[in-house]
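About this split. The held-out portion is used to measure sequence recovery: a designer receives only the structure tokens and must propose an amino acid at every position. Recovery is the fraction of positions where the proposal matches the reference. Here is one held-out target exactly as it appears in the evaluation file.
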């Protein structure tokens, strides 16, 4: 199939969102539950484990080696935040899971990067999966990344697919001992991480809103085929955002309603605020998706109107030349007896008649509002 043809172009445009939304099978059918199989894209970057260990007065921040004693960290008296950048090192995930006594199914979900955002409650910890969205270079596409968060007694474990996140502001608050984060427990730290992810969704939607405004002006002005491609690409990105945002309401609601002793009643107030933000993000995402769909309809209407204008001009020109062609055809016949041919003023008379017919038709079209 020729990729430059309309069918080939449509096939390429439709295949990209499908590939981004579909995920690889988490494991081979029939494999034992808890089998660790990394399903994300292949990465050559080393997995990085960063530690933030703190209380009101002391802060210890460092990068750990893969041979670190995670069992010792699990028994630490100070609040411990372990952040793992990269999920492709299964031995490391296994070691951390063993040290913090994570269920095999939890570790399996951590390395299966196609998980739906969800909340699971265990006896000794809480497990949260959600998606972190960031803008790629140029701000035209969204990078969706799975994030797993374990909330335990005195520790928080966070697992990302790659380096780079939206939590630098949280780290700065911890380093600067600003606010209440240094005096609160693991539940408040987990709230801060989830809240940072949800708040960044607003940044994504604001960037898309600017693109929508630009596209609206372009569609109402002089749209081109490139305009259609941009609208379609934006619609693809909105599918990615919706897939990440839609399950968040259920997740946030479960966090608010949990009766786990790991969530302090004081933190519940802040989790309700996250729930409110989640509802706002959902409403904004749905509104944006409808607007983008409307842009495509507006583009098609604009192109159709332009085509109608072109066809109207061509039809008017054809309507004018049809009677003129008729007159020219009559006097172009090769009959020997045509009395008008012998009259000296017949030629200018015919030209005048043809001009009068053309002008008359133009005045008629103008009177009817067709011009």
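Reference sequence for scoring:
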């Amino acid at each position: 199939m020729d990729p430059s043809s309309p069918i080939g172009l449509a096939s390429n445009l439709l295949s990209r969102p499908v590939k981004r939304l579909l995920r690889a099978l988490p494991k081979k059918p029939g494999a034992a539950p808890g089998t660790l199989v990394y399903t994300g894209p292949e990465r050559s970057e080393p997995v990085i484990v960063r530690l933030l260990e703190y209380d009101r007065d002391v802060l210890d921040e460092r990068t750990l080696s893969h041979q670190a004693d995670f069992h010792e960290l699990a028994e630490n008296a100070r609040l411990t935040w372990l952040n793992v950048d990269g999920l492709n090192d299964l031995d490391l995930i296994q070691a951390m899971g063993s040290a913090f006594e994570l269920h095999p199914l939890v570790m399996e979900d951590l390395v299966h990067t196609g998980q739906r955002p969800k909340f699971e409650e265990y006896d000794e910890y809480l497990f949260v999966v959600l998606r972190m969205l960031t803008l790629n270079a140029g701000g035209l596409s969204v990078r969706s990344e799975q994030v797993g968060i374990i909330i335990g007694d005195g520790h928080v474990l966070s697992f990302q697919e790659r380096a780079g996140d939206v939590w630098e502001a949280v780290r700065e608050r911890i380093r600067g001992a600003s606010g209440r984060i240094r005096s609160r427990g693991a539940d408040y730290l987990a709230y801060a991480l989830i809240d940072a992810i949800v708040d960044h969704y607003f940044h994504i939607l604001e960037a898309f809103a600017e693109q929508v405004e630009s596209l609206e002006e372009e569609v109402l002005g002089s749209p081109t085929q490139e305009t259609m491609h941009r609208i379609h690409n934006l619609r693809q990105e909105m599918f990615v955002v919706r897939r990440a945002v839609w399950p968040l309401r259920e997740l946030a609601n479960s966090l608010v309603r949990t009766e786990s002793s790991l969530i302090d009643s004081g933190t519940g107030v802040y989790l309700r605020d996250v729930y409110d933000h989640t509802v706002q993000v959902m409403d904004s995402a749905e509104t944006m998706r409808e607007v983008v769909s409307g842009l495509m309809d507006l583009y098609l209407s604009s192109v159709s109107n332009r085509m109608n204008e072109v066809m109207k001009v061509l039809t008017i020109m054809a309507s004018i030349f049809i009677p003129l062609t008729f007159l020219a055809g009559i006097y172009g016949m090769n009959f020997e007896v045509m009395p008008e041919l012998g009259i000296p003023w017949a030629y200018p008379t015919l030209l005048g008649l043809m001009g009068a017919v053309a002008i008359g038709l133009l005045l008629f079209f103008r009177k009817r509002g067709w011009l």
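Annotator remark: Residues 72 and 99 are 8 Å apart (CA to CA).
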